[in-house]
């Protein structure tokens, strides 16, 4: 683990067990010799929107499937809404809505008929209200017009929307979405963001996995970063971004001269998009500007830039040299 990773890890908040909507301890899953999840201690604070971020194959789906009781862990424990799984599945799972890969929809039934079947299995829904609830759910995910078509003919995006409609049929304490924007066009992606924001505003805890950094940055209050089956950082997104190495972006007409001047003083800098990006780990911004001015480099503008999730993610998942 690199220094930067430790610094970010230290910034993670540690809610108490009662404040958690989901928690795993030492969660592990191996398939033969493949270790898909290597001892994950995940903490999902109640009311948060937690993004599970990781490259392909990092263990996001396997972790989510174990959280939902769909895959049995090799070892470790899962607690949802304060109750252990699988012992309390019957009590807890009705309060959890989930969109995971390959929901069991019937290919020859329409979207509406599939959703009616799902609704019939919801303990919280009574017969007379089912039709109205289903129509509302179809509209909410933008499937109203295609509701009469067979599931078999649905695009990936439409299948995702139907899965989401099933997850949101009744109000939930916790909603778990595995790659919800998979297959969606930009408009569909915006709708998912809107739905996540609505759930958050209503106090629902949301756990959403993605390999899309912008998605997580735009929608989440917290982030958990998986890399090769291990959790390399988790905590509040804002705190994690603040803990990242700050840098100064300097606008100058002599970018290459600026880099040479700063490098001569042992300050790390590089040209980026016509400006100079200066690492402030070992130097402060006033010193940087002083070095440049004394070196005869014109400084048009110097501004502090927050670390983006992309930088953070790159540092967290980079290999140790
Ligand atoms: N049923 C399975 N049998 C064997 N190996 C599996 C199985 N499920 C997952 N794996 C392996 O476990 C590892 C983690 O997979 P997982 O699907 O959880 O990752 P992921 O982060 O969700 O990836 P992606 O973003 O590609 O969906 C991968 O190496 C994968 O090949």
From TrEMBL:
Domain ABC transporter per the UniProt entry, residue ranges: 22-253
SUPFAM superfamilies reported in the protein's UniProt record: P-loop containing nucleoside triphosphate hydrolases
InterPro entries: AAA+_ATPase, ABC_transporter-like_ATP-bd, ABC_transporter-like_CS, P-loop_NTPase
Domain of life: Bacteria
GO molecular function annotations of the record: ATP binding; ATP hydrolysis activity
Keywords annotated in UniProt: ATP-binding, Nucleotide-binding, Transport
PANTHER family: ABC TRANSPORTER, ATP-BINDING PROTEIN
Membership in a protein family: Belongs to the ABC transporter superfamily.
Name under which the protein is recorded: ABC-2 type transport system ATP-binding protein
Native organism: Saccharopolyspora shandongensis
């Amino acid at each position: 683990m690199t220094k930067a990773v430790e610094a970010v890890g230290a910034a993670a908040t540690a809610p108490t067990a009662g404040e958690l909507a989901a928690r795993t301890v030492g969660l592990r899953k191996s398939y033969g010799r493949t270790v898909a999840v290597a001892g994950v201690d995940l903490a999902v604070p109640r009311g948060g929107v937690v993004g599970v971020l990781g490259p392909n194959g990092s263990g996001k789906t396997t972790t989510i499937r174990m959280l939902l009781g769909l895959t049995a862990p090799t070892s470790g424990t899962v607690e949802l809404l304060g109750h252990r799984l699988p012992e309390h599945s019957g009590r807890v799972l009705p309060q959890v809505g989930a969109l995971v890969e390959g929901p069991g929809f019937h290919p020859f039934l329409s979207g509406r008929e599939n959703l009616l079947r799902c609704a019939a299995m919801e303990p919280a829904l009574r017969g007379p209200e089912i039709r109205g609830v289903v129509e509302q759910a179809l509209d909410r995910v933008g499937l109203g017009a295609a509701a009469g078509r067979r599931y078999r003919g649905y695009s990936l995006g439409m299948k995702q929307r139907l899965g989401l409609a099933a997850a949101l049929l009744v109000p939930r304490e916790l909603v778990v979405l595995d790659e919800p924007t998979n297959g969606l066009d930009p408009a569909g992606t915006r709708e998912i963001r809107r739905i996540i924001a609505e759930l958050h505003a209503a106090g629902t805890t949301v756990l959403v996995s993605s390999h899309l950094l912008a998605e997580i940055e735009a929608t989440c209050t917290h982030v958990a970063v998986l890399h090769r089956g291990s959790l390399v950082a988790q905590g509040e997104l804002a705190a994690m971004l603040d803990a990242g190495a700050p840098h100064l972006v300097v606008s100058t007409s002599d970018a290459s001269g600026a880099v040479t001047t700063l490098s001569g003083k042992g300050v790390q800098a590089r040209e980026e998009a016509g400006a100079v990006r200066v690492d402030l780990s070992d130097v402060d911004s006033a010193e940087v500007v002083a070095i440049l001015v004394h070196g005869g480099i014109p400084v048009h503008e110097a501004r502090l830039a927050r670390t983006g999730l992309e930088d953070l993610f790159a540092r967290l998942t980079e290999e140790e040299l």
